[in-house]
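User: I'm putting together a small comparison set for a docking exercise, and I want a reference complex before I start. The sequence is below, and the ligand is iron/sulfur cluster. Could you produce the 3D structure with the ligand included, as structure tokens?
Assistant: Of course. I'll restate your input first, then give the structure tokens for the complex.
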Amino acid sequence: MSEVKAIEEALEQTPDKQISLTDPDARAMSTNARSSGNVGYNVQTAVDTQHNLIVAHDFSMAMGDRRLLTTMSKKAREATGIEDLEVIADRGYFAMEEIKSTVDAGIIPYVPKTVTSSNRKMGLYDRRDFLYIEADDEYKCPAGERLPRQTKTNPGNMVIYRYWSKNCGSCALKLKCTIGKERRVSRWEHGKVIETHERRMEENPTMM
Ligand code: SF4
């Protein structure tokens, strides 16, 4: 009991209220599986694709990789000294803010976007069927209708604009588009960065 009491007291002193008796640096990390958890780290490595050598490594307590693209890209650049660096990462690293901050740091990322919508598989229009017309700040839908910007919201400190047309109700393609009153399209304020990124991915299919 006195040993347990000592651990309890030590636990109270830790900033995150965790102690790993096996490996002092390890921490509880949640996984997607229900009611399960791992004690460990999220190990990150950046590998030089020419020589297949690990050039930078780090570990993180982040649950996933989504917030680590810029950090690891900068570490890889620091280690290699390559100024015009291109980095390749799997889709687990895709987050719009991370793509932008990596580009802003002068590093070109190649990361596939996570497609969460199953619309296209079901024969319905998805976001890729809507063309952004930058000059007018409007979208053009598959029926050729223009979707002007209607609202602005700030979820999680991001500025998101929403676009829709008032003519969806009389559209012949509506059944392939939306079950709602109208089809709404969302756009991040830095959506252009993501569109440039997507175009770069399409133009360089062998990068992955
Ligand atoms: S439902 Fe609306 S957004 Fe969809 S195709 Fe028709 S007019 Fe365009």
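Residues 42-114 form one domain. The chain has four helices and eleven strands.
User: Thanks, that's exactly what I needed.
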